[in-house]
Amino acid sequence: MPIKKPSQRKLVSAVEAERLADELADRPYSANASVVKPEPQIIEEPEITDLDDELTRTTISLPLSLLNKIEDLARDRKRAKSKKGKNNSAIIREAVELYFKKIS
Asked: Smaller CB count within 10 Å for the chain: N or C?
């Protein structure tokens, strides 16, 4: 496909540019990713474990769909400037703490 000369290019109006930006905003990176709207849930705050407890690095394997949900939640919390965990690790820590609270 040859590059068009400036005189042949269609000029884009500000309205069209804004419409395209709105259309592309918050689109998942993967072309085959389905957009899943999370159901609003009331989640009780997990009690924070010992603040002096040292964090340790670990590796886990998750299904892609679950990882996408975690990343979407992290992105939403960052944009909302939430005080809750804003990264994958914090969200997973919160989920594990809630799990242990539930089973005990």
From this structure: N
